[in-house]
Specification:
- With 644 residues, the protein is α/β, with parallel strands linked by helices.
- It folds into four domains: 107 residues, 2-Layer Sandwich (Signal recognition particle alu RNA binding heterodimer, srp9/1); 182 residues, Rossmann fold, CATH 3.40.50; 70 residues, Helicase, Ruva Protein, domain 3 (Orthogonal Bundle); 191 residues, Peptidase M41 (Methane Monooxygenase Hydroxylase, Chain G, domain 1, Up-down Bundle).
- It is built from 23 helices and 16 strands.
- The strands form four sheets. It has a six-stranded mixed sheet. The chain has a five-stranded mixed sheet with strand order 3-6-5-4-7, with helices on one face.
- Strand 1 and strand 2 form a beta hairpin.
Length: 644
């Protein structure tokens, strides 16, 4: 075969140039092409076959009888020929020839010339390719899928779920929870904390309650605004109760696949029953507990089936003893009524915004690991932050610590605390305006607000007046209430409207009506909304004590479908608008009257504010006392006290 390709022709050696080649020692080991032959053969053979010949020259040699042997390669597209001619010194040489397509008569010519030839077929790789495509590739693909399924739970964000266990509960399980939060670390929500302390007592000492026939609550629903400490309470009860704890979010039950959510609920309660007594905490339960059939077009079938399964597991034919479900939501108004009834959630614990004393206690908890200077008063800071949640207060002290680090101070001072509070309330401070007409106009605007709050007895005291821009506001005036106001009187509402209009009234009196600017646009929106609520919700107008609107009017997907406006609102729209206009006009006239009565004092304080750019409440009251001449009043700096 291929062991000796030139056995018949090569019997000696040839000389190319000064190199002698011995063809007796040249062998070809089954090359499949000329290039393979040239690459795999010995260096001597390569050198001998390094010359080429055109096909036309090859035919001439064939006609002259100078071709001794031909080896065809690549489906007769190339050949290595052994030729001997006077041009080659009458010595046999190996020459490469490229054969063009369409030369089917070459074989006949070789036979007619009685030339020994041989054709070497191309190696057939189809069997190898077929084996790879039909066996190896499917095996690799199936193996990759198996590996992916087995390790997908370790992928980031997969929460331990794989395609093989979609129906399994995604709840995190802790047999001995260690959240690092104890009841002593929670402040400002004492009523809610006492409820959970009772549950912990029930789990630790059940005999005290069973003696009198008491049963442990099946469910406790935490209700309150965001950031008030609902999840913090769950962490505390997990740490204090010393029982197995399951933690899951409501959104983790609902999937696009039919039946997955209900299967996860079943699996969760099965695991909980096996580990009873235990606590199951479902955060943001409104994601799965929204009222069935609410909103436009009905509800989501998969979510509703998940809710049905949850209702059955909490209080159905099968009783799960020893399983306490703790839910948390800030949208209790949209929860299904079947979920809220006793037997499922026996207790609803309201975790509201802390009062002044609660805020002070929360600040003390978060200030444990922060060095505060002696001039920082947490009680005063609590007075200044009405409406702040526990999360807001924690963020406030953290921002103050960041500012202290920025200023390279070892302790947190009053300046950093106040700046952090201002930043959270109103935004990042900007660059004050230059001494221009606009800056003076803004100064009169802010002093107008401050004068209103000082003259009106039903209004809060001034905390700070500043010309430093924050957010979209070019200047700000803060007021601090003496106590948290849960109930607001009519005189207090009117005082707020008058104070809000005080800035625009100052612009109108000082600069004239043509110079009134757009700076009071947000003030006008506030007074319009407040006056409308006085008419339609609080019954504080000539229309009478009638509630014409509620807080959910016009809002969809709140558990009751589309809320149609009250018939009173549609029939008496013009009358409502008229009453709102009367209230605002009355308050505007009062604001202008106060500005006119205190014009001299306002001018003097504006000059001080233009220089200082920021005046705190104590300094503002001191300036008023210096610039007025009625010291025998309750508020000696006021030229005229107004009690609405």
């Amino acid at each position: 075969m291929w062991s000796t390709i030139f056995q018949k022709l090569i019997t000696g050696s040839i000389i190319i140039g000064s190199t002698a080649v011995d063809f007796n020692n040249v062998t070809i080991t089954n090359p499949t092409s000329v290039d393979n032959f040239l690459q795999n053969d010995s260096s001597a053979t390569k050198k001998a076959a390094s010359s080429t010949m055109t096909y036309g020259r090859f035919l001439d040699y064939l006609d002259m009888g100078w071709i001794k042997r031909v080896d065809l390669y690549d489906n007769s597209r190339s050949a290595i020929v052994e030729a001997s001619s006077p041009e080659l010194g009458n010595r046999p040489q190996l020459i490469k020839v490229e054969i063009p397509a369409g030369t089917s008569q070459l074989i006949l010519k070789l036979k007619e010339a009685n030339v020994d030839f041989d054709a070497h077929p191309v190696e057939d790789n189809s069997l190898t390719i077929s084996f790879l495509s039909n066996v190896i590739i499917p095996i690799l693909f199936i193996g990759g899928l198996i590996y992916l399924f087995q390790n997908s739970e370790n992928l980031p964000g997969n929460m331990g779920q794989t395609p093989m266990n979609l129906g399994k509960s995604p709840a995190r399980f802790q047999r001995k929870p260690d959240t690092g939060i104890l009841f002593k670390d929670i402040a400002g929500i004492d009523e809610a904390k006492s409820e959970f302390e009772e549950v912990v007592s029930f789990l630790k000492y059940p005999e005290k309650y069973t003696i009198v026939g008491a049963k442990i609550p099946k469910g406790i629903l935490l209700v309150g605004p965001p950031g008030t400490g609902k999840t913090l309470l769950a962490k505390a009860i997990a740490n204090e109760a010393d029982v197995p704890f399951f933690n899951v979010a409501g959104s983790e039950f609902v999937e696009m696949f039919i039946g997955i959510g209900a299967a996860r609920v079943r699996d969760l309660f099965k695991k909980a029953s096996d580990n009873a007594p235990c606590i199951v905490f479902i955060d943001e339960i409104d994601a799965v507990g929204r009222e069935r059939g609410a909103g436009v077009g009905g509800g989501n079938d998969e979510r509703e089936q998940t809710l049905n399964q949850l209702l059955t597991e909490m209080d159905g034919f099968k009783e799960n003893k020893g399983v306490i479900v703790v839910g948390a939501t800030n949208r209790v108004d949209i929860l299904d009524s079947a979920l809220l009834r006793p037997g499922r959630f026996d207790r609803q614990v309201t975790v509201g915004l802390p009062d002044r004393f609660g805020r002070a206690a929360i600040l003390k908890v978060h200030a444990r690991n922060k060095p505060l200077s002696d001039d920082v008063s947490l009680d005063q800071l609590a007075n200044r932050t009405p409406g702040f949640s526990g999360a807001d207060l924690a963020n406030l002290l953290n921002e103050a610590a960041i500012l202290a680090t920025r200023y390279k101070k070892p302790v947190i001072g009053r300046k950093e605390v106040n700046e952090a509070a201002d930043r959270i309330i109103s935004g990042i401070a900007g660059t004050p305006l230059e001494d221009t007409k606009n800056k003076r106009l803004i100064a009169y605007h802010e002093v107008g607000h401050a004068i209103m709050g000082s003259v009106l007895q039903s209004h809060d005291e001034v905390e700070k007046v500043t010309l430093v821009p924050r957010g979209s506001a070019k200047g700000l005036t803060w007021f601090t209430p003496e106590e948290d106001q849960n109930l607001i009187s009519r005189s207090e509402l009117l005082a707020r409207i008058i104070t809000t209009l005080g800035g625009r009234a100052a612009e109108q009196v000082i600069f004239g009506t043509p110079e009134v600017t757009t700076g009071a646009s947000s003030d006008l929106q506030q007074v319009t909304n407040l006056a409308r609520q006085m008419v339609t919700r609080f019954g504080m107008s000539n229309i009478g004590p009638i509630a014409l609107e509620d807080e959910n009017t016009g809002q969809v997907f709140l558990g009751g479908g589309i809320v149609q406006g009250s018939e009173f609102t549609s029939n008496n729209a013009d009358r409502i608008s008229e009453e709102v206009r009367k209230i605002i006009n009355y308050c505007e006239n009062k604001a202008i009257e106060i500005i006119l009565d205190n014009r001299i004092v306002i001018d003097l304080i504006v000059d001080e504010l233009m220089d200082a750019e920021t005046i705190d409440g104590a300094e503002f009251r001191q300036l008023l006392s210096l610039y007025t001449t009625l010291p025998n009043k309750k508020m000696p700096y006021a030229s005229k006290l107004i009690n609405l």
